[in-house]
């Protein structure tokens, strides 16, 4: 499970499943990087294709994984099936689009000890302290929202984590210097 309020969230894409062995090779490489930098407890990796969550969890059970409910599905009709599937594959959470979230859906997922993951954009601000993790293009706004009323109750034993979805502006590869793993 994630060790704090910040971490790395990975959206695993399945565009390359036609290439034999690619999924396993890519996820083994990803796992090697996660282990190299001692981030096993700071990564959440999810996909609409639950095969990626299954494979990554088989490679490294310490990494939190999740599945996502497609936007065109009616969440109230499919949430129980996704909860059951998440539990079957030992996933940690379910991504649900913010326009589909309600307090009842969040409670239903939490009852099963699964995280609710969503996007900040479009999220009802009354639900911000109920979800476990959300993505934001601009992290300043949700951080301001969360800190503006620190006494406002949160869901029991839950403090939302924040993932940033805005693409990073990286310097040319030859200028990037990697830091050694923390000890």
Short summary of the structure?
This protein has 183 residues and is of the alpha/beta class. The chain is built from five helices and seven strands.
Protein described:
With 183 residues, the chain is α/β, with parallel strands linked by helices. The protein has five helices and seven strands; from the N terminus they run E-H-E-H-E-H-E-H-E-E-H-E. Helix 5 (140-147) links the parallel strand 6 (133-136) and strand 7. The radius of gyration is 17 Å and the shape is globular. The two termini are 20 Å apart. Residues 155-159 and 164-183 have low confidence and may be disordered.
Keywords:
5 helices, alpha/beta, disordered C terminus, 183 residues, 16% strand
| Helical residues, percent | 25-40%
Amino-to-carboxy terminus distance:
20 Å
Report the mean per-residue pLDDT as an integer. 79
Low-confidence stretches: 155-159, 164-183
Element-by-element helix/strand order: EHEHEHEHEEHE
Give me the count of strands: 7
Q: How would a crystallographer describe the biggest sheet? A: 7 strands, parallel
Radius of gyration: 17 Å
Shape: globular
Structural class: alpha/beta
What proportion strand? 15-25%
Widest sheet, order of strands = 1-2-3-4-5-6-7
The tally of helices reads 5
Compile the SSE list and pairings.
Blueprint: E1 8-11, H1 22-36, E2 43-47, H2 50-59, E3 64-68, H3 75-88, E4 93-95, H4 103-111, E5 115-119, E6 133-136, H5 140-147, E7 161-164
Parallel strand pairs: 1-2, 2-3, 3-4, 4-5, 5-6, 6-7
Helix pairs in contact: 1-2
